[in-house]
Amino acid sequence: MSGPSLKKVDAHSSIHEAALNEAKELRELYRHCLKKERQEKALQVAEITIEHWETRTLKHAEAEEEGLYKEMMEENPDLTEVVVQLTRDHNLMRNVVGQMKEYMMQKRVGEEFIRFMDALIVIDEIHNEDEMNKLLASDK
What is the pTM of this model? Predict the structure, then answer.
């Protein structure tokens, strides 16, 4: 069973917004490190960024898949397609984070890592909007 805040649009939206804002701040910090040619600091920010996505967004995604999405489909089977789409978003984010980890294993810093960050942010923004408008709006 999912926590009560996952079904409340405002609370759920706040969870998403906070994590997304943190991700954007990390992206800007990473860019700043590249601009100032601070390679070691950039590596640290990259590691923190991966940890952020794993512990904040992807853990939240896991909770949604194991609780909220199942409950919503049980209550309304017409939401199955929406849940499939939202789960696909989660899988795309997991894939990008996996690519980030591979990139980091080479201890590299550069613009390519920003592409990963941007991809995650765009996927997450679209996902959050769809979740609010297509899934949680149906629960009103």
Answer: 0.91
